[in-house]
Amino acid sequence: AFSASPIVEPEVADGKVVFDVNELEGITLSTKIIQDIEASFQDNEGLKIVFELNGGIIELDKKAFDMLEGDELISIINVPTSNMPGTILNKVQDRPVFDISMGDVHNFGGGKLSISLHYDLKENEDADNIRIWHFDNEGNHTVTRCTYDLDSETVTFMVNSLSYFSIMYEEDEEPETSSFGSTIYVILSIVMIMALFGAIMMYSKKS
């Protein structure tokens, strides 16, 4: 049996242990809860652990969950600009930033975490242009692949490490047409037309 607190009782169904605490930003798992869940993996290696929080949803596989030790605070916090590191704020401006953490564990090695965050598309935004920026401790970012679900209005992505994440919007740039290439194309077209015209004239004279 699982018990995250006297109030929270996870649901166990369809190969998932779900902690539904969507009114909270985070939840603390005791060592005993973690041990109970680890015992259930003996019967089902494919079991998924799901935390439905106010800021979004975190889903862990067994390898990721094995990295947790106990008394870990699992949280998704929408970071206000006043609390945002300057190196990140300068890059994201007014885009939403989330601090996603699971205690002191930041790297999950071969484990996988699926993260889903709520996001309302702005006017004229195309869902295909939504990107996730994953920041490191120095403020450098990598672009993480994601999908946007129009029905649930959520951005979902896979990672194996946690830190700051920002939901960005990046339109694909149109490839620039080289002026040199355009000039060559025009010249070749003129040469081909002149050659064709010359061939027609020679044929007419012979006839």
Report on the structure:
- By secondary structure, the protein is α+β, with helices and mostly antiparallel strands.
- The protein has helices at residues 31-41, 62-65, 86-92, 179-206; strands at 11-13, 16-21, 26-29, 48-53, 56-60, 72-78, 97-102, 113-118, 130-135, 141-144, 146-149, 154-159, 164-169.
- β1 and β2 (16-21) form a beta hairpin.
Note the run of SSEs as H and E.
EEEHEEHEHEEEEEEEH
Total DSSP E strands:
13
- Class based on secondary structure composition and strand pairing: alpha+beta
β-strand percent reads 25-35%
What does the largest sheet look like?
Answer: 7 strands, mixed
From the alpha carbons, calculate the radius of gyration and give it in angstroms.
27 Å
User: What is the residue-mean pLDDT, rounded to a whole number?
Assistant: 86
Distance between the termini: 99 Å
Major beta sheet, strand line-up = 1-2-4-5-8-12-11
Number of discrete helical segments = 4
Name the poorly predicted regions. Answer: none
List the helices and strands and how they pair.
Layout: E1 11-13, E2 16-21, E3 26-29, H1 31-41, E4 48-53, E5 56-60, H2 62-65, E6 72-78, H3 86-92, E7 97-102, E8 113-118, E9 130-135, E10 141-144, E11 146-149, E12 154-159, E13 164-169, H4 179-206
Which tags fit this structure?
about 210 residues; seven-stranded mixed β-sheet; six-stranded antiparallel β-sheet; 4 helices; 13 strands
Write a short abstract of this structure.
The protein has 207 residues and is of the alpha+beta class.
